[in-house]
Design brief:
- The protein has 262 residues and is an alpha/beta fold.
- The chain has a single domain (2-253), classed as HUPs (Rossmann fold, 3-Layer(aba) Sandwich), CATH 3.40.50.
- It contains 8 helices and 6 strands.
- It has helices spanning 2-16, 21-31, 44-55, 72-85, 96-106, 115-133, 177-187, 255-259, and strands at 36-40, 60-65, 90-92, 139-141, 158-161, 166-169.
- Strands 3-2-1-4-6-5 form a 6-stranded mixed sheet, with helices on both faces.
- β1, α3 and β2 (60-65) form a beta-alpha-beta unit.
- α1 (2-16) packs antiparallel against α2, α3 (44-55) crosses α7 and α5 packs antiparallel against α6.
- Mean pLDDT is 88; it is low at 237-262.
- The structure holds iron/sulfur cluster.
């Protein structure tokens, strides 16, 4: 089965180049061999894909990971999107026990004090819920774009996610940000109000800042960390390395307290 899906992913990857984003989504639905799930962060790229799915009534499940730390503007957009299309965006939440353990171990904002703590938080709030969101799916749609960051530039339109055993498709991978902005304006797609305040890439509130002129799009995400390591673990790399074990608690429980300003 894995070999079949790997082969199919390679075929789709070649075919995608000549198709529009809508045609790519239709092609994935026809060939994925199982349910197709789109996980949206409600960023502008994802809003374009949500529009394509809802406006064309595609049989793709639209889900979001509510980390509990999102901006108020993101929740407003979530509601506005459901109202506009008359469709529900299914929510997934962190496991209560894991979240309690995380916060009690490393503090409510422990992610500022060590990369390990940041990965622990993303693990509990994002990566584990993602695993449930796409469990049993044949295809997983994302809004990744080639020019968002150096980490993403060598990805493909379509790949086989060996860690999760499914086909991962990026239907707007070759679209520029400007083209997506134009598309959303032309089609009346609701977008996050923070984009107009220079928040180019929007994640959790405590881990996102506005970008300054000339900065890369994702410069406002986890800005206190080394640039090359700023990913949350949702997207494994081309070598199919699995995301880290998200159920692990911090190696040094309580260490965050030692790092807090006294
Ligand atoms: S982005 Fe920040 S708050 Fe959100 S899950 Fe990751 S570390 Fe936690």
């Amino acid at each position: 089965m894995s070999d079949e899906r790997r082969h199919l992913a390679a075929e789709l990857n070649i075919g995608f180049a000549a198709l529009t984003p809508l045609e790519r989504l239709r092609s994935l639905v026809e060939r994925a061999g199982g349910p197709v799930v789109f996980t949206t962060s409600l960023g502008i790229e994802d809003q374009m894909i949500t529009h394509l799915i809802f406006a064309n009534d595609l049989p793709i499940q639209v889900k979001t990971l509510d980390t509990g730390r999102l901006f108020p503007e993101t929740y407003t957009l979530w509601r506005e999107t459901e109202e506009k299309y008359g469709r529900r965006i299914k929510a997934l939440y962190p496991q209560a026990d894991a979240l309690e353990a995380l916060v009690n171990d490393q503090g409510i904002d422990g992610f500022y004090y060590a990369p390990e703590f940041r990965r622990n938080c993303c693990g509990v709030r994002k990566v584990e819920p993602l695993a449930r969101a796409i469990a049993g799916a044949g295809g997983w749609v994302t809004g990744l774009r080639r020019d968002q960051s150096a980490n993403r530039s060598d990805m493909d339109f379509v790949s086989f996610d060996g860690a999760r055993g499914l086909i991962k498709a990026n239907p707007i991978f070759d679209w520029s940000r400007d083209a997506i902005v134009a598309f959303t304006a032309e089609h009346g797609v609701p977008v996050n109000a923070l984009h107009a305040k220079n928040f180019l890439s929007i994640g959790c509130a405590p881990c996102t800042r506005a970008t300054r002129p000339g900065e890369p799009e994702r410069a406002g995400r986890w800005w206190w960390e080394e640039e090359t390591k700023r990913e949350c673990g949702l997207h494994v790399d081309g070598a199919d390395r699995p995301a880290r074990d998200v159920t692990n608690r911090p190696a040094r429980a309580g260490a965050a307290f030692e790092r807090l300003p006294q």
